[in-house]
Design goal:
Antitoxin SocA-like Panacea domain-containing protein; mainly alpha; three-stranded antiparallel β-sheet; single chain; 8 helices
């Protein structure tokens, strides 16, 4: 399945610009935590899809995306312009920002370093890959625990981030709008 955006730089620039528009300086460590959360939550909200082509590895402080880490070591490159962001992805990133943007880099780092996927990779050492499947499993398990093990696997946790958009019906009534997602089909009998 294709990525939702062409490059992890598009997501980084979106968060950087969002912070700038909110008159906030975004620390590099906070930026890495936000893109980590965005990747994990997106793959839970849209099963089988990745938000961006990115790999997260352990650093002495927590998870980082090494390409972003290297490219932005001395600040935002002057010639880097983002690709247009699809509306669905921009709405999703708004939810990540709304939920986690007010937290400090230290708060996000502490939270993420307690996640089993991150902790397991950090126990192996620096530059260990944090598998996306393990990231997703943590959030799905968290949602199941919040719901007592019943119901849609990740609905409770994901709705905290991905709130439906409100639009107006023909009669002017506010209606919640979400993207259509087909139901998973069971295995066909052989």
């Amino acid at each position: 399945m294709p990525f939702a955006v062409k490059s992890c730089f598009d997501v980084v620039l979106w968060f950087s610009d969002k912070a700038l528009n909110d008159n906030e300086y975004i620390q590099p460590q906070k930026l890495h935590r936000l893109i980590f959360l965005a990747q994990a939550y997106f793959s839970v909200a849209y099963p089988g899809r990745k938000l961006m082509p990115a790999t997260f590895v352990t650093d002495s402080f927590g998870p980082v995306e090494p390409t972003i880490f290297h490219a932005l070591a001395y600040g935002r490159p002057p010639m880097l312009d983002p690709n247009p962001m699809p509306d669905q992805v921009a709405h999703f990133l708004e939810g990540i920002w709304r939920r986690f943007g007010a937290q400090t880099a230290d708060q996000l780092t502490r939270k993420l370093n307690e996640h089993p996927a991150v902790a397991a990779a950090m126990n192996k050492g620096l530059n260990e890959e944090i598998p996306l499947a393990a990231m997703v499993k943590y959030y799905v398990d968290l949602a199941k625990a919040a719901q007592g093990g019943d119901g849609p696997a990740a609905a409770a946790e994901i709705t905290k981030v991905v709130k439906p958009r409100l639009m107006r019906s023909q009669g002017g009534k506010a209606v919640a709008v979400t993207a259509w997602a087909p139901k998973a089909l069971g295995k066909k009998p052989e």
